Amino acid sequence: MKILLARSAGFCFGVKRATQMAFEAAASHNGICSLGPIIHSPQLVKRLEEKGVEVVRNVDEIRHGAVIIRSHGVTSGELADISDRGLETVDATCPFVKSAQDRAARLARDGYTVVIVGENEHPEVQGIVSYAEGAEVVVVGTREDAGRIPARKRIGLVAQTTQSLDKLRDVAGACLDKCQELRVFNTICDATSVRQEEARELARNSDLVLVIGGFNSANTTRLAQICREIQPRVHHVETADQLEPQWFEGIETVGVTAGASTPGWLIDEVIRKVEGMSRKS
After folding, report:
1. CA 36 to CA 16: how far, in whole Å?
2. DSSP state, 5?
């Protein structure tokens, strides 16, 4: 079998930065935790736990030491609680996420109804919502959701960094019908757009596509969805152990891509296993 690996598969800038900061912090601190998993890769989170980084779910669980702020960021309230407790922080928030938070805060200060394109329960979106304090905030996932927004004089629009540009355009179009003034900030990370376009190209040229990354990773799940729109034989896996030999029967070309939170070693393990199946067939 021929294996096609997407050029940008794996860590994006923000995730690479966050994991490097986390491992460095683990090596230099006795007693350190992360508020939520540092990135959406259970395998990497486990490696950090082995280095002494405990994952906590809320600020009340932090007793002492230092706390790592995950790449997705945290809410403004959580950040204030950390500061009030006098805890040392290692802020690994992705700069693109910080930009989205700042844009939402600016729109709120300027009196806009803030519309956020994203997944309501995602930690990044919850963080962005918190920075729009004082404003009316609506989270939408589709153009149809945006169409249900009541008419408002001024709407400001930002997006979860891993959303697609097409979805942002669709929602912006719907919002135009709902207001007299629309202000749009494109807060989508370039890495997301690049990976999604590579995924489309990979799906067009492969008999089967493997998408590697955490099942809790929004951007990885989106890559799998994009590939399925073109090539129905798509499998989203976290590790090489999840590969099934029958998937590859009669397959000549396997496309491989991975989410922005997927470590390189997991990609390498998947490719080695596919190569091993190819030699046996």
Report:
1. 17
2. E
Give me the helices (H) in the chain, please: 13-28, 42-50, 76-84, 95-109, 123-131, 143-147, 165-176, 190-204, 218-228, 264-280
Contacts of 81 (CB under 8 A, 6+ apart): 59
Contact, 235 vs 245, CB < 8 A? Answer: no
Point out the residues that are catalytic. Answer: 124
Cα–Cα distance measured from residue 247 to residue 108, given in angstroms and rounded to the nearest whole number: 50
What pLDDT digit, counting tens, does each position of 218-230 carry? 889 989 999 999 9
CA–CA gap between residue 129 and residue 134 (Å, rounded): 10
User: What is the length of the chain?
Assistant: 281
118/219 Cα distance (integer angstroms): 11
Q: How far apart are CA 162 and CA 137, in angstroms?
A: 19
Write the single-letter amino acid at 270: V
Alpha helices (H) along 151-189: 165-176
Count of alpha carbons within 13 Å of 56, Cβ hemisphere only?
A: 22
Place of tokens 């997927």: 262
Q: What is the DSSP letter of 135?
A: S
pLDDT tens digits for range 182-234: 999 999 988 888 999 999 999 999 999 999 999 999 889 989 999 999 999 99
Residue holding tokens 């040229």?
Answer: 205
Quote the CA–CA distance of 203 and 198 in Å, as a whole number: 9
Please say whether the beta carbons of 10 and 267 come within 8 A: yes
Residue type, 91: D
The identity of residue 191, as a single letter, is A
Give Cα 29 to chain centroid, integer Å.
27
